[in-house]
């Protein structure tokens, strides 16, 4: 797989949406990023482990990482290889056995943080879904293609409530496009 190595750069919230956070994955040149949506529980776990807090050492993910540490973890990596209906297709790949294990993208990112694994995105994912990365940016543009149907619907409702009709139109168009593609 032609791929790009990514680092977890930050975790942030979406203004006006209370139950979703964003994880920013940045390429090594720090010029492009993938933005992955996650729930608040996952956001909190990712932030705890990124901060390397002592209370995480006896939690289940750390213990599993320690158990895996008895073998060579260097053959394991997290791969983001596609996008379907606003959800990144992700797997944990074992190079030794050449087996892949599908996983929710935010869980794969969390697993990579806990076990200190590499995260890769396919060249196609980076080409189609990454956005420019700016080191000191306070806002992040988010392609509609990377939002789940639920998040698109929630955002559409908020856009209508706030009378942001241009945004509502864009969100509706993305939802219609997805559902049209499913029926073809």
Describe this structure in words.
- With 184 residues, the protein is of the alpha+beta class.
- It has helices spanning 40-50, 60-68, 105-115, 123-129, 149-161, 165-183; strands at residues 3-14, 17-27, 32-39, 76-84, 87-94, 99-103, 118-122, 131-132.
- The longest helix is centred in the last third of the chain and has 19 residues, at 165-183.
- The protein is globular and about 55 Å long.
Keywords:
6 helices, alpha+beta, 38% helix, 184 residues
Mean pLDDT across the residues is 87
What order do the helices and strands follow? EEEHHEEEHEHEHH
Report the total helices: 6
End-to-end span in angstroms?
29 Å
Helix-strand makeup class? alpha+beta
Largest sheet: 8 strands, mixed
Amount of beta strand: 25-35%
Helical proportion?
Answer: 25-40%
Strands of the biggest beta sheet: in what spatial order? 6-5-4-7-1-2-3-8
In angstroms, what is the radius of gyration? 17 Å
Detail the poorly predicted runs: none
> Per the principal axes of the C-alpha atoms, what is the gross shape?
globular
